From TrEMBL:
A Gene Ontology term for the protein's cellular component: endomembrane system
Localization annotation: Endomembrane system; Membrane
EC assignment: 2.7.8.8
Residues that span the membrane, as ranges: 31-53, 65-84, 90-115, 127-146, 152-177, 198-226
Official protein name in the record: CDP-diacylglycerol--serine O-phosphatidyltransferase
Main enzyme class: transferase
Annotated GO MF terms: CDP-diacylglycerol-serine O-phosphatidyltransferase activity
Catalytic activity: a CDP-1,2-diacyl-sn-glycerol + L-serine = a 1,2-diacyl-sn-glycero-3-phospho-L-serine + CMP + H(+)
Keywords recorded for this protein, A-Z: Lipid biosynthesis, Lipid metabolism, Membrane, Phospholipid biosynthesis, Phospholipid metabolism, Transferase, Transmembrane, Transmembrane helix
Length: 236
């Protein structure tokens, strides 16, 4: 019976993604963002529970990736698609309404990233390329920032088609880049083995306190930068 517990949690991830997609196409992007966060929690829990009770299975691995394609592949593409539709401008002369489908490029590269992850034996204790949940959390933070930030600056930046297209290209590249990134997996809690993780978590909490939802893009950037620094360090 216990071997099915992680798979049940994975299914909750998938269900959260389906609900997120439903609300996205209803234009309720804030609800979509919260459901993305819920899906990310379930995605974290299924792996943690599987490790705790020793319930690894090949079907669980495949189910996890299939759920992630929806929650962290289709959903961020849909959010970018809708944000591009809402952008009141053109992209180098092309009406944004026609170019909005470009947002689904993130969906394609998310699927490629998940397929690579399933067959890449290097990614047991770390990641190669940006994990799809991190990419999706960044995208999902955009409507939350719009909802909670006063003034026109956030709208002028986030609903700028050039910014959205550039972000889509950068995220798509990072998803499949040969870029080693540390994982938040603790085998122990010593400073020597987890310094980079403790620094990341501490700075992330500080950013959230200072910037609230606007901290999320900076946290993802910090994650990439710390990984690059760790990689370049002689002691890494």
């Amino acid at each position: 019976m216990k071997k099915h517990i992680p798979n049940a949690i994975t299914c909750l991830n998938l269900f959260s993604g389906c609900l997120a997609l439903y609300f996205a196409f209803k234009g309720e992007l804030v609800i979509t963002a919260y459901l993305v966060g819920l899906a990310a929690v379930f995605d974290f829990l299924d792996g943690m529970v599987a490790r705790l009770i020793g319930a690894y299975s090949e079907i669980g691995k495949q189910l996890d990736s299939l759920a992630d394609v929806v929650s962290f592949g289709v959903v961020p593409g849909a959010i970018l698609f809708i944000l591009l539709q809402r952008a009141d401008a053109s992209f180098f002369g092309i009406p944004v309404e026609s170019f909005a489908f470009f947002g689904f490029v993130v969906t394609i590269f998310s699927a490629l990233r998940l397929a690579k992850f399933n067959i890449d034996t290097r990614q047991t204790d770390s990641f190669i390329g940006l994990p799809t949940p991190a990419c999706t959390l960044l995208v999902a933070s955009l409507p939350l920032i719009l909802e909670t930030t006063d003034g026109l600056l956030a709208y002028e930046i986030i609903l700028n088609p050039v910014v959205l297209v550039t972000l889509t290209v950068i995220l798509s590249y990072l998803l499949v880049a040969e870029l080693p990134l540390f994982a938040l997996k603790f085998k122990n809690f010593t400073w020597q083995d987890n310094a980079i993780r403790f620094v990341f978590l501490g700075l992330s909490v500080l950013l959230v306190v200072l910037l609230q939802y606007a901290a999320i893009p900076f946290i993802i950037l910090l994650y990439v930068l710390l990984s690059v620094i760790k990689r370049a360090s002689p002691t890494a």
